[in-house]
Amino acid sequence: MSVLVTGAAGFIGSTVAARLIERGVPVVGVDNLNDYYDPRLKQARLDSLQVHNGFSFRRLDVQDRESILALAGEFPDVTEIVHLAAQAGVRYSLENPFAYVESNVMGHLCMMELARRLPKLRHFVYASSSSVYGGNKELPFSVDQRVDSPVSLYAATKRTDELMTYCYAHLYDLPSTGLRFFTVYGPWGRPDMSAYIFTKAIFEGQPIQIFNHGDMRRDFTYIDDIVAGVLAVVERPPRRDGETPPHKVYNIGNHRSEPLLRFVELIEQACGKQAIREYAEMQPGDVKETYADIGPAQRDFGFEPRVSIEEGIPRFVEWYRDYHGA
């Protein structure tokens, strides 16, 4: 048994890989170490994995068809894929739309083609996003709701991934599970996300922008809870049920919709400094509120988020201080 993890130098991917290695599971990591954000942070995550004998790494782009498909011959014993590589970020999709289709659509297709070529593969697990709910006004967001009104290209590519995977599960009997992650934060987090942006600005004495004049709520989910959900899912591939293909989609969130201003207050407290606040209008592609219904994940694999923002934010700020010497 071995698990192939894409986005292995990323925030979620590196943590998933580390937890698998701790369990004694060999991991094949794939990442292209692109410069969407500081590659030194990605390399630092990767360095912490490469000290382990159970970790193999290939620097590849998931949209590189020949190189990705060649992994089937190099690692024929892979039994699970956890596909987390993607072009992330809602706002950047307004600036560079081609990157999203190339990575999130073509890259996803390449990974599914690899999956059906691996002779021992039991489960294809992939990252979707809470962004697929778009402008949905019914809360909490449920996997039973329609998700055909995306408000960003990023969301549209993630919904495309879900539809393509359903098709492959139907055509090739490929057991697959999509995970709609809700606003992940925590140590080793991405610099383009709010916890990192706010913390950095506060320590540097720079203003923070608070969109929609602070009238926003998010289902902030701590990294350890996200990873616990991923690992629980990996062990439980779906089965074909009559005419229904072996494909499931779940929300992985904290099941709490927290006010953005409360999130900012906790970061200020952990930093020991007040933020310089600048209030701004809602940004294109953004949504006012997210809130995960996690009932199906609780029922099917016992998912129970444990870390509140009152616990998680100080942990993140402590990591930030250590990593940056703040």
Structure summary:
This protein has 326 residues and is an alpha/beta fold. The protein has helices at residues 11-22, 39-50, 65-74, 92-95, 97-115, 153-172, 194-204, 223-234, 260-271, 295-301, 309-324; strands at residues 2-6, 27-31, 55-59, 78-83, 123-129, 176-181, 184-185, 207-210, 217-218, 221-222, 247-252, 258-259, 276-279. The protein has eleven helices and 13 strands.
Task: Name the descriptors.
326 residues; alpha/beta; Rossmann fold; seven-stranded parallel β-sheet; two-stranded parallel ribbon; 11 helices; 13 strands; 41% helix
The total beta strand count reads 13
Order of strands, main sheet, comes to: 3-2-1-4-5-6-11
- Structural category is alpha/beta
- What letter string, H or E per element, gives the SSE order? EHEHEHEHHEHEEHEEEHEEHEHH
The number of helical runs is 11
DSSP strand content? 15-25%
Describe this structure in words.
With 326 residues, this protein is an alpha/beta fold. It has a domain of 216 residues: Rossmann fold (3-Layer(aba) Sandwich), CATH 3.40.50.720. The chain is 41% helix and 17% strand. A seven-stranded parallel beta sheet has the order 3-2-1-4-5-6-11, with helices on both faces. The chain has a two-stranded parallel ribbon with strand order 7-10. Strands 8-13 form a two-stranded parallel sheet. The mean pLDDT is 96.
